[in-house]
């Protein structure tokens, strides 16, 4: 038993309260090294009467480690605990400080979870677990009100450039809510809708005004109300890392330099305000002069932005915020932001743009979730660009699951492309078979899936600006077969809770393999997902416990013989099978 590989920490995602009565405990070991782990746990003030022995199950794995877990419901919301680890020929005890040959006689030196304080329980909004998101880039979705078009607007459907406009607006979204309902969407994430100079609106000029080319606050309120009538939640984009160059405080700074009363609203390295050798003399997003970085530690800046965060939730009833460049803003600001937003709407969803491992923001004091680009990369690396084999893919997914509390994984924002990437179909080189496999995994995995507008009808596009084409509304030019496929995915997800919040376990994922089998299950459902990216039909033989399965795509029955489910899937094929109980 490799003791150096064994790790546990009595906080963060290793020991945490899942709800007001339940603690989740996790421990890491070298892969395939430890076969059984038992948790010795009890109340430190009443040890002999409360101590219990609970088995941990191997929950997930990556390339180097196994992760075991169990849940405990301590009678007095406190816990002292130690681990008993067993391999083929060795067993050992582990307390907070050392490894022991014998079971600890007292709980004095064990790990401790001091108390489940309800205020500390990380509780993301429950509705997100059941949500199917749709990302809309307002300028390119639909032009519903030509009267508010910007000067020089181009005919709908032209070539997108970084600086051109096609007149998309909020009325255009209102006009197509029937389409979103037909697809099955239950939540919309809008890129910024506030006053700005660009087509993408990430250079905010006025945070308290809807962009004049999109409509006004009444239009936004109407849109939100109509969405809510259809059971669709609305998420807006908050650009609080930086403003635009036309933001009034920055305009004052440009005009008055060191004498500006707003000089501490920004991070100025030196005066005068200028750009030297392509680098602004002030901090910005990237090195973009149009986007000066805000000083979110400044009390006046903080007061202003928190007012904005509260205002739109109260004014139009939005359901949360997506936070642009969230990892470059200080943690303390986000803690105060969370407090403000949750006070305005306890069910608001706070989604941070973080492209990497995000656990520092997902401890319950800042975000509910992050944009799950590590998930995006893993899915695309396996299904789309063949950079991973099945074993590496399963390990990558396992690593991601191991990093977060379960409630964070349940509301993760799982996307396959966005306004910041090439479109999924383009990444697939136009191969819809690959695209369907990637989307199928997205919709049968833990977390909330998000469709980038137009993917469902076969829109393509290279990296920005090509990924920001005008939505295609001519049905003759839409891929309606692909639309029907996405409809089916959404229907399956919304009708089977196991696909949303059930446990996930990889059953097959071999080195050099091109196919995976995984299980999603809860107390009522057991669903198998089989996927192959082979160019030839594949025979799957899976050991199962049920006697019969129903194919959720075709409705056909799949028999089981001698405890083995045998099924052939076509090239780049799949099957989603539900066990028939009883």
Automatic annotation (TrEMBL):
<comment type="similarity">
    <text>Belongs to the glycosyl hydrolase 13 family.</text>
</comment>
<protein>
    <submittedName>
        <fullName>Alpha-glycosidase</fullName>
    </submittedName>
</protein>
<dbReference type="InterPro" id="IPR045857">
    <property type="entry name" value="O16G_dom_2"/>
</dbReference>
<dbReference type="Pfam" id="PF16657">
    <property type="entry name" value="Malt_amylase_C"/>
</dbReference>
<feature type="domain" description="Glycosyl hydrolase family 13 catalytic">
    <location>
        <begin position="135"/>
        <end position="493"/>
    </location>
</feature>
<keyword id="KW-0378">Hydrolase</keyword>
<dbReference type="InterPro" id="IPR032091">
    <property type="entry name" value="Malt_amylase-like_C"/>
</dbReference>
<dbReference type="Pfam" id="PF02903">
    <property type="entry name" value="Alpha-amylase_N"/>
</dbReference>
<dbReference type="InterPro" id="IPR006047">
    <property type="entry name" value="GH13_cat_dom"/>
</dbReference>
<dbReference type="InterPro" id="IPR013783">
    <property type="entry name" value="Ig-like_fold"/>
</dbReference>
<dbReference type="InterPro" id="IPR017853">
    <property type="entry name" value="GH"/>
</dbReference>
<dbReference type="InterPro" id="IPR004185">
    <property type="entry name" value="Glyco_hydro_13_lg-like_dom"/>
</dbReference>
<dbReference type="Pfam" id="PF00128">
    <property type="entry name" value="Alpha-amylase"/>
</dbReference>
<keyword id="KW-0326">Glycosidase</keyword>
<dbReference type="InterPro" id="IPR013780">
    <property type="entry name" value="Glyco_hydro_b"/>
</dbReference>
